[in-house]
Amino acid sequence: MKRILLVLCLLFTGGVFAANEGYPLDKANIDPTDSESLRRGATLFANYCFNCHSAALMRYSRIGKDLGYDEAQLESLFIFTGAKVGDLMEIAMQPEEAKRWFGVVPPDLSVVSRSRGVDWIYLQALGC
């Protein structure tokens, strides 16, 4: 299940290199051509991860384009607020609140997936 979530991260990256900081990382073993897996991962991200982790460099419409969803499907599967299909995928939680609650602001996954790579995210998801 966690592996599927990481497929979404690959979707955000368009191809990344792992920044493993000198530690060997388990491989995420992601197949970017498996559209059903990408769809499941995107749905899991929207339902579980997107509560705390934003993807502020992505638009809902981009998810729709990449995964073949129309506007109605995007609204029913990914948009649970007053956001529009063309909006950026931002969360309501303010950084100050997140820092107070968690001790650190949960990273924006569209940025982290690009800077650290999907293998790093896979390792972090295993610790959840």
Structure, described:
By secondary structure, this protein is mainly alpha-helical. The protein has one domain (2-126). It is built from seven helices and two strands, in the order H-H-E-H-H-E-H-H-H. The chain has helices at residues 2-13, 35-47, 60-67, 71-77, 95-102, 109-115, 118-126, and strands at 55-59, 88-89. The chain has a two-stranded antiparallel ribbon. Helix 1 packs antiparallel against helix 7 (118-126). The longest helix is centred in the N-terminal third of the chain and has 13 residues, at 35-47.
Q: Brief description of this entry?
A:
This protein is mainly alpha-helical and 128 residues long.
